[in-house]
Design brief:
Low-confidence stretches: 2-6
Structural class: alpha+beta
Shape: globular
CATH topology of the largest domain: Nucleoside Triphosphate Pyrophosphohydrolase
CATH architecture of the largest domain: Alpha-Beta Complex
Largest sheet: 4 strands, mixed
Helix content: 10-25%
Strand order of the largest sheet: 7-4-9-8
InterPro entries: NUDIX_hydrolase-like_dom_sf, NUDIX_hydrolase_CS, NUDIX_hydrolase_dom
Pfam families: NUDIX
Radius of gyration: 21 Å
Order of helices and strands: HHEEEEEEEHEEEHH
CATH class of the largest domain: Alpha Beta
Family: Belongs to the Nudix hydrolase family. NudK subfamily.
Catalytic activity: GDP-alpha-D-mannose + H2O = alpha-D-mannose 1-phosphate + GMP + 2 H(+)
Strand content: 35-45%
CATH superfamily of the largest domain: Nucleoside Triphosphate Pyrophosphohydrolase
Number of helices: 5
Number of strands: 10
Protein name: GDP-mannose pyrophosphatase
């Protein structure tokens, strides 16, 4: 069977481009009809909502309420990037990632980034630049992560939170590209931050 026979729409109905779509997303939206708190933890809040679908049917959505977080790309004077190696219990592995941390209630994201960089690495930065915002787990969490570039670093004393254990080291952007390609780095915020930095440096 030819490809045109197996997919009869391939020739007669080519895919639209994004500019062809309606600006309105009302035909895609779901509407909450009820909401239930399933679990209230110290860090995460699990909810179960009943929603009405665009076709009028109903279903449920389970998702996590997250306070939000920041991630930092700290650049040393020699161009290398400060990284951390930290054990992540849910995936049972020590992960290579950039410094990051969750927002305290009402905390400004930039102030959170400055606090987390100092606490986790001992470095402070004179220059800060917003690189972008990501939604790392759109299917089951409200989490957002704001990414910052930190430059002109000065080393001081780090002050890890109680129960926090991590290694701090530095690597070049080229090394990070290699580690992403090989699967040594799989943390999504780190991968996307490398993209943002490389694009900014015109290496992509």
């Amino acid at each position: 069977m030819s490809s045109s026979e197996s997919n009869p729409k391939s020739n007669s109905e080519p895919e639209k481009s994004f500019s062809d779509l309606s600006e309105s997303d009302g035909h895609l939206r779901e509407h909450r009809t009820s909401s239930e708190d399933v679990y209230l933890g110290k860090f995460l809040h699990l909810k179960k909502d009943i929603v009405q679908l665009p076709d009028g049917n109903t279903t449920y959505r389970e998702y996590l309420i997250h306070p939000g977080a920041v991630a930092i790309m700290p650049i040393l004077n020699d161009g290398r990037i400060l990284l951390e190696r930290q054990f992540r219990y849910p995936v049972d592995a020590a992960m290579i990632e950039i410094p990051a941390g969750k927002l305290e209630l009402g905390e400004d994201p930039l102030l959170c980034a400055q606090r987390e960089l100092l606490e986790e690495t001992g470095y402070s930065a004179k220059s800060w630049e917003f690189l972008g915002r990501i939604h790392p787990v759109i299917s089951y969490s409200t989490e957002i992560i704001d990414i910052y570039l930190a430059k002109d670093l000065t080393l001081g004393e780090r002050a890890l939170d109680e129960g926090e254990f991590l290694d701090v080291f530095a690597a070049s952007l080229d090394e990070m590209h290699e580690w992403i390609a090989s699967g040594k780095i799989t943390d999504v915020k780190t991968i996307i931050s490398v993209y943002h930095l490389a694009r900014r440096l015109k290496k992509l």
